[in-house]
């Protein structure tokens, strides 16, 4: 039994070499995704594309990422997980090289669709279902959530560092006079090289990460209804999240309180720090009250705080509510991933991770469109109120539908 004083450890006891390689690869890719997500639209504008073309290419990356992630999840039960991760790394390397060397619209549109660039800074990708499956194979059930928390923290911190690295082209131009387009192309080359580094990390993975002999006929068997139910609820949560993406939240703060860009960036930075810390705090809470209860009873209060923000009489109260909400809202990230991996059979894990993650891309986009429209109609924080209400509804439904479906380590005999 993991004691409460172990949650803060750098890695949970029993973390294997395979898990270390996956965590390292996660950090490498999150860093690369962090800078390329910001540089992609800037680069496309710099080489002469208009807003419509940029939007089409970005949309192509979103749709392509979602479909590719779903496809990999559905075929992974028949193939080596190590080889799929290696193949994904090769695709990442090729994507970086292609964006660095090709400037025509239609080829870039196709590359964006089939490649690995993700404009949401690595929140979902072809690697995710495979990595979550592998991590689950490498550690005992009672320490799985702690390992997933580290996976989330590494991705968050490395992605933030990658965002900072996106300033390199501007720095190189201002300090040394380098052409910005050339430097951005070099950053795409670096993205491809990080794909090579991921390949190097994945190649030595042991046979312990593979499924047992005898592939099932279908990617999802007895857990099909459970997985589809979870996917529908997670999509509902993501629809609510789409109402409060960072860019739209920044727009509302500007409209409501006339805050500067620097102030907004500072608020969002500390919001991100609170969210990262919450990944680790979720571990001891889940040990005491269970995964579903942790997901619901931390997420639901955060949505109440979110719905209160539009009624804030001044900026300080709005910031306080936002930070408290951020400190609670992300505890369901590692616990959600851990729960999905726990309640399905080992051979179903890649498909379960894929099917439950893909709907959020489309739901997130729908929520963002609706949120932007609402902000054009009124300066009141309707997106925060509506998004919070949708997410609160998700919490209640999750508790009703799945509180009785407990992972093995929470069974009375565990």
Please give a handful of descriptors for the protein shown.
single chain; 414 residues; mainly alpha; Growth Hormone, Chain: A; 2 domains; 17 helices; 73% helix; globular
Would you mind describing this structure in some detail?
- By secondary structure, this protein is mainly α.
- The chain folds into 2 domains: 15-214, Growth Hormone, Chain: A, CATH 1.20.1250; 216-414, MFS general substrate transporter like domains (Growth Hormone, Chain: A), CATH 1.20.1250.
- The chain is 73% helix and 0% strand.
- The chain is built from 17 helices and no strands.
- Helix 1 runs antiparallel to helix 2.
- The protein is globular.
- The termini are close together.
- 47% of the residues are buried.
- Residues 1-8 have low confidence and may be disordered.
Task: Give a short summary of the structure.
The chain has 414 residues and is mostly helical. It has helices at 17-46, 51-75, 81-101, 105-114, 127-137, 144-165, 168-176, 180-202, 224-242, 246-257, 261-289, 291-308, 315-329, 332-342, 349-357, 359-377, 382-402.
Topology:
Layout lengths: L16 H30 L4 H25 L5 H21 L3 H10 L12 H11 L6 H22 L2 H9 L3 H23 L21 H19 L3 H12 L3 H29 L1 H18 L6 H15 L2 H11 L6 H9 L1 H19 L4 H21 L12
Do you know the CATH architecture of the largest domain? Up-down Bundle
Highest-level CATH class of the largest domain: Mainly Alpha
Ranges where pLDDT stays below 50 over 5 or more residues in a row are 1-8
At the fold tier of CATH, the topology name of the largest domain is Growth Hormone, Chain: A
Strand content: under 5%
- Global morphology: globular
The whole-angstrom Rg is 21 Å
How many domains comprise the coordinates?
A: 2
Please give the share of residues in helix: over 70%
Secondary structural class: mainly alpha
Q: Which H/E pattern describes the elements?
A: HHHHHHHHHHHHHHHHH
Number of helices: 17
The overall average pLDDT, rounded, is: 87
CATH homologous superfamily designation of the largest domain: MFS general substrate transporter like domains
Distance from first to last alpha carbon: 10 Å
Count of extended strands: 0
Main sheet: strands, sense, barrel: none
